Description:
The protein is an alpha/beta fold and 99 residues long. The chain is built from three helices and four strands. Helices cover 28% and strands 20% of the residues. α2 packs across α3. The model has no long low-confidence stretch (mean pLDDT 91).
Amino acid sequence: MPDHPPLLLIPGLMCDGRVFAAQTAAFPTAVAAPGFGAVASLPEMASRALAGAPERFLLLGHSMGARVALEIWRAAPSRVLGLALVATGVHPVRPGEAD
């Protein structure tokens, strides 16, 4: 099997890493970020994900996790080898959305 870079999976709103159980089982280099609990901002979520991430990685974010993935890419672009955004919006947070 060729050497593949790690794949970091970022879960969406009200999810945690368990949502990616099938993917982490199927792809040996895949790791899922844990959920974000009470973390309230995208930069804080990105910082938490980056703290446990490999040095360089492929990145996939789902739903709100894709917004976190964009923040990861903004904060540490040299660490991100590729980026996939799944089922998300990329507009700024709208009034009342954070609630």
